[in-house]
Amino acid sequence: METMGIKFAPINTPFKRRVETFCAFLWIVTFAFGNFICYWLAAYLIFFSSYWPYVLLYLAWQYYDRETPYKGGRRFTFLQKLPFWKYFNDYFPISLEKTAELPTDKNYLFCCHPHGILCAGMFGNFGSGYSKVKSLYPGLNVLSATIDLHFRSPFFREYVLGLGAVSAAKESIVYLMDDKKKGNVLALAVGGAAESFYAKPGSYKLILKKRKGFVKIALQTGCSLVPVFSFGETELYDQVPNPPGSLLNRIQTWMKDLIGFAPIVLKGRGLIQYSFGIVPMRTPITTVVGKPIDIPKTAEPSDEIIQKYHAVYIDELVKLFNEHKTKYLKDSENISLVIE
């Protein structure tokens, strides 16, 4: 393996699998707890160390730089090319399938489904440097959208920005999809954090019927909508039962509304095979990128035209799922896409 000109000795298979497992563990810990760890680290350095002037300078810089996540981000290629991401992608493994050409004279909103727990397929394919995305779609600038929470915490925001992520806020999407720019791709988990409640093995339930904001933005900017489906995403974890109306479900919903994501009580595997833990299951994830849906630019789209293209999008998404589920899902004849 060679990364940025540095050669690494091959790792034998048993040890390589342990490294892959550890990288999958670090991924879930980083994105589940990274914000809180960085908040506490900043507080500790300010109040209990001699480094407080440097932290205050950084916080001043963070405030000055606060618009970057909404204005196209700031990618650090070396972060995307860290060997960590190779082992993370190989753990499942994560792969990408192309079904249509995407000319570089347009912008594309990749509408990614399902959200899963932490969008492993989306970030593995569109955030890491070990995906085929650049070779499959040369000339396109591929970015990923994520929750604002990641850009508010000190230090952690630089890591997320470096991976090519931007805010999922409307302002950020409109900036990238503006038709004055060409060749931008933004991967967006349309179902949002609420969809993670349904991320359970054998379940492909999406929150989409009332999610029409992405269609309105496509109409206003003239970008193309592209349905993207990650088969295997919901197989990574099981969850402690949380039926609607239960105490756990109410707590999760409250926390989602408060901080922007849903705290899920995971049932994964441990660092040692078959032990209990928060490591995702070693299950293949195949992200299939569908055909682009051309959307006419409409400065002030009516509810009727938004509904029309929302229905077109859902039809194309269901078609994409049904055309590929037999290749990537076990017992596929008994699995249907449920849209709520």
UniProtKB/TrEMBL annotation:
Positions in coiled-coil regions: none
GO cellular component, one term: endoplasmic reticulum membrane
Segments crossing the lipid bilayer: 21-42
Root EC class: transferase
Cited InterPro entries: DAGAT
Taxonomic superkingdom: Eukaryota
Example GO biological process: triglyceride biosynthetic process
Molecular function in Gene Ontology: diacylglycerol O-acyltransferase activity
Keyword Acyltransferase: yes
Similarity comment: family membership: Belongs to the diacylglycerol acyltransferase family.
Protein's UniProt name: Acyltransferase
Origin species: Nezara viridula (Southern green stink bug)
